[in-house]
Amino acid sequence: MKHFYKINKYVAPYKGKMILGIVAIIAANVLTALVPILTKRIFDDIDRGSMTMPALYVMVAVIILIAVVSGLMQILSRLLIMGASRRVETALRNDTFANIQKQSPSFFVKYRTGDIMSRLTGDIESVRMAIGFGVTFIINSFVAFVISIGGMSYVNTRLAIISLAPLIIIIFIVRKLAALMHEYSMKTQIQLAAISSRAQENFSGAKVIKAFTQENSEIEHMKKLNLDYLNCNMELVKVTGIGFTVLALVTEIGIGVILWFGGRDVISGSLSKGDFIAFNMFYFAMLWPMVALGWTTSLFQRANTAMERICELLEAAPEIPESSGDAATQCPVLKGDIEFNGLDFEYSSGQSSFKLQNISFAVPHGRTLAIIGTTGSGKTTLMNLLSRLVKAPDNSILIDGIDINKINPGALRDCLGVVPQESFLFSDTIRNNLIFGRPDASDEEMRFAARISRISVDIEAFPEKYGQVVGERGITLSGGQRQRIAIARAIMKNPRILVLDDALSSVDTHTEEEILNGLREFMKGRTCIMIAHRISTIKDADEILVLDNGRIVEKGPHQYLLSLGGMYAQMFAQQQLEQQLI
Amino acid sequence: MNHSDELVGKAYDAKLMKRFFSYLKPYRLYVVIIIFLIITTTGISLLGLNLVAKALEYITDGKLAENEKVSFLIKFTAIYFLMQALKGILGYWQLYITNYVGQKVINDIRNQLYSHLQGLSMSFYDRNPVGRLVTRMTSDVENLAELFASGLIAFFVDIFLMLSICVMMFITDWRLALISLAILPALFAVTMIFRSKARQTYRDSRKQIAALNSYLQENVVGMAIVQIFRREKRNYDDFERLNHEMMVTNIKSLFYFALFFPSINLFFTISTALLIWQGAGSIMAGALTFPVFYLFWSYLQKFFQPIRDLGEKYNILQSAMASSERLFKLMDTPSDISGSAQGRIVDILRGDIKFRNVNFSYEKDNYVLKDVSFHVSPGESVAIVGLTGSGKTTITNLLLRFYDIQEGEILIDDIPIKDIDISSLRSKVGLILQDVHLFTGTVSENIKLGNSAITDETMESVIEYVNASEFISRLPGGFKSEVKERGATFSVGEKQLLSFARALAIDPKLLILDEATSSIDTETEQLIQQAMEKLIKGRTSIIIAHRLSTIKKADRIIVIHKGRMVEEGTHQELLAQNGIYTKLYELQYKMQNK
């Protein structure tokens, strides 16, 4: 339970509610315990002949009253405790999400989307279950157990001890079986995973399977896996079956024991009929809590592992702290002079790693720099460095002459307009996607940006125009449309520095020309970095860097690079040919 | 994660249920046994209660002497224990057989689903993400298993037990029965209300979970954008709002759940109180004995037990219904390759290929191949060249009949491809893909691909023949070595050699080869080139070529451009034409000509 205690912080605000809920559980149980006692009174009085009809009415009325009040208490306790568990769940999810927001790309390489999702859903649910059901049932079981034993002893101590003996076995058996069941269910999980991965491989390799007409052999293979799974499951059934049977048997044996010993006492007269029924009532009241106890402990175990997994996300330290950067450079109004000063940087994602070596260049504000190169030459890493998504070595990147690591990331990003390679849009309206970085922007500004990026005509053609929802729950946009929206989104921010990372790759050359013309006006006085594959995109840049394997191999304006007759010139010739083919 | 999966089904759908029960047919005998066991164990349960009451009757009988009472008590207790032991054994078997049948049915459904999926065409796999299909094979089938294991049968057992108790009560004392069960209509009403409320909130909360999850997923995937655009605060607020809305719904639904369980308890106590009221009164009036009262009380106790976990069973039923709806829908997907069933079994001997005015599109009107005609004679090797997306791979897909063409005709050995039985066609075609798909398993399993007709000797000679024996023998376990993570431990060249062996092992008449584009070290490159020469010798081969050396070796070159066949001839002939091939040559192959 060494991880689960971390939830204390989240439960603390609801401490009052939790305690009140626990008190209500106790009250409900104490009240319920009065029912057997009253029943005993009724039958004892009947036996003695001292019972009258009016007295019976009163007592029955009291029993019903008790039932109502104790029912209300139970409802109250559930509302309080389970309500609190829902609130804890929500707060925990909010905080985890907030911390995820501070993480760098490397974090999202380490924790894949599916993994993060399962932690934020399944694991948080496990924690919630332990706080809600777990606490309710464990308190309830404990209280019911204590009260029932008390009640049984009150009626007849000797009988209580004798009839409890088989129940001690229950606890023992539940614990033992829970361990066995866990073991077997792990085995079935492994078998199910085998089925799952076989199916996964089959579906993703459908072409090969079909080409080699291996459908039938695949079916046979799956049948075998399936049968193994069935056998594994039946092993589990054997254990759970024995568990259930023994559980049922033990409670019935308890009744037999009560009948045997209680019966002897009834015969000898030391146990009244009232005692007998009251004793039975207490006994039955205890059975269900006993079974629930075994289940509850497993809830807490699961919650502990879940909490550990959640804390990995919740407590992960961000690579670049939000508050980093000197106070003096907290919120500078940046001009946009960019300088890379002998940057060496190694970046790994999964198995592949990129290396940038000795990258030096300077872009004074108002100028345009273009970067071109083969795939995997590290262009996108440059963009990540510049927007401080990943940490650059000290003094290797300077903005307005200030080390980028000394500039607050928020302040830096405020000055930055980025169009990333993957033009990722949110499944929301086009308007909300456009004003993503400037929620306060006017419609005028939005339409202006849409015009510059040549997307306004497309938008006007949509049935809902700017209110059109895109993505998963809306219309599907073409790659070119997505890129143009992403450009407009960056322009909306009115940035000092504009970074286009292969942002025009999906638009045709004619539209590209138009967008570039529109941007030319907008770019006046701003710094622009363009990363591209196509020379047509960048030929007008003030300076072009040719990147190969993480190194700058050529540098200069278009005409100059052509005259060099090197890599750039080769690329240009190739692209000219390609152009002819299209 | 796919959110269209969040189908919220009804808890009970007669049509689905009927189909579901049809799977029980092969296990009729077992079902009969189960029913017999349910009846027997229920009977013993009720008999046990009667026995205890009977014992009470004897020991509280004033007319009997004490030692007589004791001997009765001994007798009754002994019988009681014996009955419980019997019930325990029968109960265990009931559980075991029930689960066995359940698992069998699930097994059948999963096998049937898988077989069905194997029969579906490539276009089905293009449309459906792998993850979704895997979910159908696992989670959805598991939901049904859960229904069998703890829902369905238990539900019938419970209903049967409750009905039996009612009957027994009325037989024993109808007036007392009426009063004890007076609360039943109210109980029924509360359960119905709970059912409809639970269904509503279940729906609402599923919707909200789906909304929250998709928002979360989007934010995780697009986190860099969120950070660059400084949207952390706003998106956090959005997330918090969604999270809060979900909480409100959950707390609302909590209200019904919080109400349900205690009300069952309340009903139980009220029933008991009514029983005490009527019972005690009757006892005082001498119209009822204490043992009968006790019997009624224990009936009530048993009656209320199953109602307590009704809520949970209801949830199981609900998700199982949603799952079975999705499963059956998938099982009903027809294969869009027509006429495959009645195709002729043809032994392709020559390997003669004709395309006649073929038009083909994957999606409506978006034609990928336009009016393509060519002829490949037996034994000839043809290289197909063209830009990415020009339709080269489509030609090979059509030859394997992964898709049916819209217009024109494809003939193999002068037989229309549509008339040939698909497996007899594919068993004569060796396919070598650019990205070699390796499966989990050993190297030899990856070469044989489950084809039992391939002997170890054949495999070894094939491995030797395609120059793969050297690197395989270097593996720690030889060809018994395990292939890990889709072949991550092999180089691209090694994988290529493995796929050569795989294709050659079936001794194909027709070879389709999509050359790997990735760079391969010169040593392996040479092995591959040699192997390829051996491979295409004497076979009709169609090669999507990326290397100049391969193109030059081919008997003929077909140039595909924007879905049309534009040029045809040998390397020299085509260069002389100074057309598209010449441009392609300069663009893609010239640099290789060192």
Summarize the structure in short.
The complex is a heterodimer of chains A (582) and B (594). Chain A is of the alpha/beta class and 582 residues long.
Description of the structure:
- The complex is a heterodimer of chains A (582) and B (594).
- With 582 residues, chain A is α/β, with parallel strands linked by helices.
- Chain A has a domain of 311 residues: Up-down Bundle (ABC transporter transmembrane region fold).
- In chain A, 64% of the residues lie in helices and 11% in strands.
- Chain A contains 19 helices and ten strands.
- Chain A has a six-stranded mixed sheet, sandwiched between helices. A four-stranded antiparallel sheet of chain A has the order 2-1-4-5.
- Chain A is elongated.
- The two termini of chain A are 65 Å apart.
- The model of chain A has no long low-confidence stretch (mean pLDDT 84).
- With 594 residues, chain B is an alpha/beta fold.
- Chain B folds into three domains: 190 residues, ABC transporter transmembrane region fold (Up-down Bundle); 114 residues; 240 residues, 3-Layer(aba) Sandwich (Rossmann fold).
- Chain B contains 21 helices and twelve strands.
- In chain B, a hairpin with a 2-residue loop joins strand 11 and strand 12.
- In chain B, helix 2 runs antiparallel to helix 3, helix 3 runs antiparallel to helix 5 and helix 17 packs parallel to helix 18.
- The two termini of chain B are 49 Å apart.
- The N terminus of chain B is likely disordered.
- The chains are: A alpha/beta (582), B alpha/beta (594).
- At the A-B interface, helix 2, helix 3, helix 5, helix 6 and helix 7 of A face helix 2, helix 3, helix 5, helix 7 and helix 8 of B.
